[in-house]
Amino acid sequence: MLQYRAPIRDIQFALHELLNITPHYNAIPAYSEMSRELIDSVIEAGAKFAEEELSPLNRIGDEEGCRLEDGNVITPTGFKEAYAKYVALGNGSIAAPTEYGGQGLPLSLGIVLGEMNGTANWSWGMYPGLSHGATKTVEAHGTHDQKAIYLPKLISGEWTGTMCLTESHAGSDLGLIRTKAEPANDGTYRITGNKIFISAGDHDMAENIVHIVLARLPDAPKGTKGISLFIVPKFVPDSQGNIGDRNNVICTTVEHKMGIRASATCALSFDGATGYLIGPPNKGLHCMFTFMNEARIGTAVQGVCSAEGAFQGALKYAKERLAMRALSAPQAPEKEADPIIVHPAVRTMLLTQKAFSEGGRALVYWLAMQADIVQSSTDEEPRKRADEMMSLLTPIAKAFLTEMGSEAAKHGVQIYGGHGYIREWGMEQIVRDTRIACLYEGTTEIQSLDLLGRKVLQSKGQLLMDFTKIIHKFCQANEADTSMSEFVKPLSQHNKTWGDLTMRIAMRAMMNPDEVGVAAVDYTYFSGYVTMAYIWAWSAKVALDKLKLNPPDAAFYQAKVQTAQFYFKKILPRVHTHLELLETGADVVLQMDADAFAF
User: Which of 441, 445, 479, 515 does the annotation list as catalytic?
Assistant: First the structure.
């Protein structure tokens, strides 16, 4: 069975040495008193909880799953008790506002804790994870009374939250939803309809569940312009926030899923349930984006979780498992065979996992820093720049990191060989768990359309140019450093290609809009590989500078440089395949008649 160990040293490298997180916090008035000591103490406490409380429950949760009894969901053994400890430790309130009982720490620090929880026990981490988005939505759009009733309990963790978007006939096309909201004579609404795929939609870990629900008012226009947002609690609270009667919302099914089996993915039936309008009528999607953007960052983190978990398990096994001899000469002559880590194929898979987990971690933390600025900075210009950066990077991070996390999980099974296919080792669970991250909060394909169609082309390339300028300036600043040339030259070339490629796609799209749909996924992969190349070049620069000082942990920095070299030489060349695919255009995809696909 896998036992998670928090990669504290690499987390500290990403936060303190690469991103210089303490000055970042101190530049925001709300976080002016943050110190490295405080940051590290929060991380260490979070690591202890993830390692000791959550990791031992990971396989138990996968084996037992959730069960539905009399309309109520029962979570696996130990989940409820672990959640009680989580609440008692105040872990859920880390990044919440102090006026409602939170600790007022930065969102980015909460993302670090979320990564550790998710790697240790992905399913368990889903329960509090959805609450953060619900909290942000109420905080941003709720009335004074709604905030007073719901925020203290959501922040403390006494109550949890969900997001109820999807309906069986609609999927990701929210303009098709049919759930109705009929006004009552007391200022509330009666919500009627059915939602599916609701993570943490019901469970026994908290005393109440606050559903954030998309529904239509009677006079609403069709499509996405006619969607409103409602708070629908499992138990209706009174004006003081005390639990009242059970609402008319029940769990009808717990989905039997490929992975994250201990996360209660529910079908919910709303039968005239009491709901409360949040935000303006017919502006539900606008309000929901408060929720969805944070959820997408959280899903990008899950790609890192998958890569890190698979890497930890595979590395331990590769060092211990004996099989065959190294081609050059025996590496462990005193043993009957060499450990498989000596074999190039195994090392390639391990280095790929390491590159994706550590590079992905740095990328997500950097993205979370932008969210800190958007959420809490008092300076309008930095907020605008950070918001634009998030607009571009969120679909890249969500799509690319979850796909790379899935690849890393596959390598984990492969390194174990036949044992990786057996449940007791834990590798096949990571493969099953991680597949969902490529689907929920917008599939890779939908994120790709968002990136290319909305963020890049609709901004006339401005969002992309703002980011490629950052990379260009990095390359310029380091072009004279001979130790950086192996990173700077290819990065600079691909950065220029990114802009040129975008122009060519834009020109084709003017003649045929379907060119965007055909190009989007390969464009996202290209964007992801180049973005991570920047992260690894940046990491290599920091590590090389540290090595000049002869630090006692020189091996750590040397490994950073070597992983960057591996990424540039063995992973980054994948962009050439995507470039070739992007140049082929739409005709070969669209020319076949739908009836000719099968006979």
Answer: 441
